[in-house]
Recover the amino acids of this structure.
Protein backbone atom coordinates (compact mmCIF):
# COMPACT_ATOMS: atom_id res chain seq x y z
CA UNK A 1 0.00 0.00 0.00
CA UNK A 2 1.43 3.34 -1.06
CA UNK A 3 1.69 6.47 1.09
CA UNK A 4 -1.20 8.01 -0.86
CA UNK A 5 -3.48 5.05 -0.15
CA UNK A 6 -2.49 5.04 3.52
CA UNK A 7 -3.30 8.75 3.81
CA UNK A 8 -6.63 8.19 2.03
CA UNK A 9 -7.58 5.39 4.44
CA UNK A 10 -6.48 7.47 7.44
CA UNK A 11 -8.50 10.40 6.17
CA UNK A 12 -11.56 8.23 5.57
CA UNK A 13 -11.42 6.70 9.05
CA UNK A 14 -10.76 10.06 10.75
CA UNK A 15 -13.57 11.80 8.90
CA UNK A 16 -16.00 8.95 9.60
CA UNK A 17 -15.13 9.08 13.30
CA UNK A 18 -15.50 12.87 13.35
CA UNK A 19 -18.89 12.58 11.65
CA UNK A 20 -20.08 9.97 14.16
CA UNK A 21 -18.81 11.91 17.19
CA UNK A 22 -19.98 15.25 15.81
CA UNK A 23 -23.39 13.88 14.87
CA UNK A 24 -23.82 12.26 18.28
CA UNK A 25 -22.70 15.47 20.02
CA UNK A 26 -25.15 17.64 18.17
CA UNK A 27 -27.91 15.08 18.69
CA UNK A 28 -27.24 15.23 22.43
CA UNK A 29 -27.28 19.04 22.42
CA UNK A 30 -30.53 18.92 20.45
CA UNK A 31 -32.11 16.55 22.97
CA UNK A 32 -30.97 18.83 25.81
CA UNK A 33 -32.38 21.76 23.87
CA UNK A 34 -29.10 23.50 24.56
CA UNK A 35 -28.43 27.08 23.64
CA UNK A 36 -25.15 27.53 21.81
CA UNK A 37 -24.01 30.30 24.15
CA UNK A 38 -23.82 27.78 27.04
CA UNK A 39 -21.30 25.75 25.10
CA UNK A 40 -19.36 28.50 23.36
CA UNK A 41 -16.33 27.92 25.62
CA UNK A 42 -16.18 24.21 24.70
CA UNK A 43 -16.54 25.02 21.01
CA UNK A 44 -13.78 27.61 21.33
CA UNK A 45 -11.36 25.10 22.93
CA UNK A 46 -12.16 22.31 20.47
CA UNK A 47 -11.94 24.71 17.54
CA UNK A 48 -8.60 26.13 18.73
CA UNK A 49 -7.08 22.69 19.24
CA UNK A 50 -8.29 21.50 15.84
CA UNK A 51 -6.96 24.63 14.12
CA UNK A 52 -3.62 24.24 15.92
CA UNK A 53 -3.39 20.58 14.85
CA UNK A 54 -4.14 21.43 11.23
CA UNK A 55 -1.64 24.31 11.31
CA UNK A 56 1.11 22.09 12.78
CA UNK A 57 0.43 19.38 10.20
CA UNK A 58 0.49 21.70 7.21
CA UNK A 59 3.48 23.67 8.50
CA UNK A 60 5.47 20.45 8.81
CA UNK A 61 4.70 19.28 5.29
CA UNK A 62 2.19 19.83 2.53
CA UNK A 63 -0.33 17.02 1.99
CA UNK A 64 1.35 16.20 -1.31
CA UNK A 65 4.87 15.92 0.15
CA UNK A 66 6.36 12.51 -0.53
CA UNK A 67 3.98 11.72 -3.36
CA UNK A 68 5.38 10.96 -6.78
CA UNK A 69 4.05 12.48 -10.01
CA UNK A 70 1.31 9.89 -10.54
CA UNK A 71 0.11 10.17 -6.95
CA UNK A 72 0.03 13.98 -7.19
CA UNK A 73 -2.11 13.67 -10.32
CA UNK A 74 -4.49 11.28 -8.57
CA UNK A 75 -4.62 13.58 -5.52
CA UNK A 76 -5.46 16.63 -7.64
CA UNK A 77 -8.10 14.76 -9.63
CA UNK A 78 -9.67 13.59 -6.36
CA UNK A 79 -9.64 17.18 -5.06
CA UNK A 80 -11.59 18.27 -8.13
CA UNK A 81 -14.14 15.51 -7.58
CA UNK A 82 -14.42 16.45 -3.90
CA UNK A 83 -15.09 20.08 -4.85
CA UNK A 84 -17.84 18.92 -7.23
CA UNK A 85 -19.32 16.68 -4.53
CA UNK A 86 -19.24 19.53 -2.00
CA UNK A 87 -21.04 21.90 -4.37
CA UNK A 88 -23.68 19.36 -5.40
CA UNK A 89 -24.27 18.13 -1.84
CA UNK A 90 -24.51 21.65 -0.39
CA UNK A 91 -26.77 22.72 -3.23
CA UNK A 92 -29.10 19.78 -2.72
CA UNK A 93 -29.19 20.15 1.07
CA UNK A 94 -29.97 23.86 0.88
CA UNK A 95 -32.34 23.90 -2.09
CA UNK A 96 -34.40 20.71 -1.57
CA UNK A 97 -35.95 21.97 1.74
CA UNK A 98 -37.05 25.12 -0.07
CA UNK A 99 -39.15 23.09 -2.49
CA UNK A 100 -40.24 20.48 0.06
CA UNK A 101 -41.17 22.86 2.91
CA UNK A 102 -41.99 25.96 0.93
CA UNK A 103 -40.50 29.43 1.03
CA UNK A 104 -42.48 30.61 4.05
CA UNK A 105 -41.63 27.66 6.32
CA UNK A 106 -38.91 27.48 8.98
CA UNK A 107 -36.30 24.89 9.89
CA UNK A 108 -34.59 24.33 13.24
CA UNK A 109 -31.18 25.91 13.86
CA UNK A 110 -30.06 22.40 14.80
CA UNK A 111 -29.84 21.58 11.11
CA UNK A 112 -27.20 24.22 10.34
CA UNK A 113 -24.21 22.53 12.04
CA UNK A 114 -25.49 19.20 10.73
CA UNK A 115 -25.49 20.57 7.19
CA UNK A 116 -21.95 21.89 7.74
CA UNK A 117 -20.69 18.57 9.13
CA UNK A 118 -22.41 16.43 6.54
CA UNK A 119 -21.09 18.60 3.70
CA UNK A 120 -17.54 18.32 5.03
CA UNK A 121 -18.00 14.59 5.44
CA UNK A 122 -19.35 14.20 1.89
CA UNK A 123 -16.41 16.11 0.40
CA UNK A 124 -13.79 14.22 2.41
CA UNK A 125 -15.49 10.89 1.75
CA UNK A 126 -15.54 11.50 -2.02
CA UNK A 127 -11.91 12.69 -1.92
CA UNK A 128 -10.68 9.56 -0.12
CA UNK A 129 -12.82 7.19 -2.16
CA UNK A 130 -11.70 8.81 -5.42
CA UNK A 131 -8.06 8.27 -4.43
CA UNK A 132 -8.62 4.64 -3.43
CA UNK A 133 -10.66 3.81 -6.54
CA UNK A 134 -8.16 5.46 -8.90
CA UNK A 135 -5.24 3.65 -7.23
CA UNK A 136 -6.98 0.27 -7.42
CA UNK A 137 -7.98 0.81 -11.06
CA UNK A 138 -4.42 1.60 -12.09
CA UNK A 139 -2.89 -1.22 -10.09
CA UNK A 140 -5.34 -4.04 -10.72
CA UNK A 141 -3.00 -5.73 -13.19
CA UNK A 142 0.05 -5.13 -11.04
CA UNK A 143 2.18 -7.81 -9.47
CA UNK B 1 -3.89 10.51 -20.52
CA UNK B 2 -3.28 8.80 -23.87
CA UNK B 3 -2.16 5.53 -22.27
CA UNK B 4 -4.03 3.58 -24.96
CA UNK B 5 -1.51 4.81 -27.55
CA UNK B 6 1.65 4.48 -25.49
CA UNK B 7 3.19 1.03 -25.20
CA UNK B 8 6.39 0.12 -23.39
CA UNK B 9 9.00 -2.60 -22.94
CA UNK B 10 9.71 -1.99 -19.27
CA UNK B 11 8.91 -5.53 -18.22
CA UNK B 12 11.17 -7.01 -20.91
CA UNK B 13 13.98 -4.59 -20.10
CA UNK B 14 13.73 -5.34 -16.38
CA UNK B 15 14.29 -9.02 -17.02
CA UNK B 16 17.11 -8.28 -19.43
CA UNK B 17 18.79 -6.19 -16.74
CA UNK B 18 19.45 -8.88 -14.18
CA UNK B 19 15.84 -9.66 -13.27
CA UNK B 20 15.40 -6.18 -11.84
CA UNK B 21 12.31 -5.98 -9.63
CA UNK B 22 9.67 -3.29 -9.91
CA UNK B 23 10.72 -2.00 -6.50
CA UNK B 24 14.37 -1.72 -7.56
CA UNK B 25 13.41 0.22 -10.68
CA UNK B 26 11.08 2.43 -8.65
CA UNK B 27 13.86 3.22 -6.16
CA UNK B 28 16.30 4.06 -8.94
CA UNK B 29 13.95 6.49 -10.70
CA UNK B 30 12.45 7.93 -7.50
CA UNK B 31 8.81 6.86 -7.72
CA UNK B 32 6.62 4.32 -5.96
CA UNK B 33 6.31 0.70 -7.05
CA UNK B 34 2.64 1.37 -7.81
CA UNK B 35 3.67 3.96 -10.41
CA UNK B 36 5.96 1.44 -12.11
CA UNK B 37 3.14 -1.13 -12.04
CA UNK B 38 0.69 1.33 -13.61
CA UNK B 39 3.24 2.47 -16.21
CA UNK B 40 4.20 -1.09 -17.11
CA UNK B 41 0.54 -2.01 -17.56
CA UNK B 42 0.04 1.00 -19.84
CA UNK B 43 -2.43 2.60 -17.44
CA UNK B 44 -0.29 5.63 -16.70
CA UNK B 45 1.65 7.74 -19.18
CA UNK B 46 4.74 9.01 -17.33
CA UNK B 47 6.10 12.53 -17.62
CA UNK B 48 9.04 13.13 -19.96
CA UNK B 49 11.57 13.43 -17.10
CA UNK B 50 10.41 10.10 -15.64
CA UNK B 51 10.46 8.43 -19.06
CA UNK B 52 14.05 9.63 -19.59
CA UNK B 53 15.04 8.44 -16.11
CA UNK B 54 13.65 4.97 -16.83
CA UNK B 55 15.51 4.84 -20.16
CA UNK B 56 18.74 6.00 -18.51
CA UNK B 57 18.39 3.32 -15.84
CA UNK B 58 18.31 0.65 -18.54
CA UNK B 59 21.00 2.44 -20.57
CA UNK B 60 18.92 2.55 -23.73
CA UNK B 61 17.33 5.34 -25.81
CA UNK B 62 13.87 6.44 -24.74
CA UNK B 63 12.28 5.06 -27.93
CA UNK B 64 13.48 1.59 -26.97
CA UNK B 65 11.45 1.81 -23.78
CA UNK B 66 8.36 3.67 -24.99
CA UNK B 67 6.58 3.50 -28.32
CA UNK B 68 3.95 5.96 -29.40
CA UNK B 69 1.36 4.98 -31.98
CA UNK B 70 -0.66 7.71 -33.68
CA UNK B 71 -4.43 7.21 -33.49
CA UNK B 72 -4.93 7.13 -37.29
CA UNK B 73 -2.09 4.67 -37.96
Amino acid sequence: MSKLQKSAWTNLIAVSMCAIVGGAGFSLLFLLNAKGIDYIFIFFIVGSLTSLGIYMFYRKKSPEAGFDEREKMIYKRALGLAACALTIFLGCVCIIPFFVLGGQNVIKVYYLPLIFLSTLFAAQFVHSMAILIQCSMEEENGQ
Amino acid sequence: MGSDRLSNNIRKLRFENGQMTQQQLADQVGVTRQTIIATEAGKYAPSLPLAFKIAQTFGVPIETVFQYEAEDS
Observations:
- The domain at 3-68 of chain B is CATH 1.10.260.40 (434 Repressor (Amino-terminal Domain)).
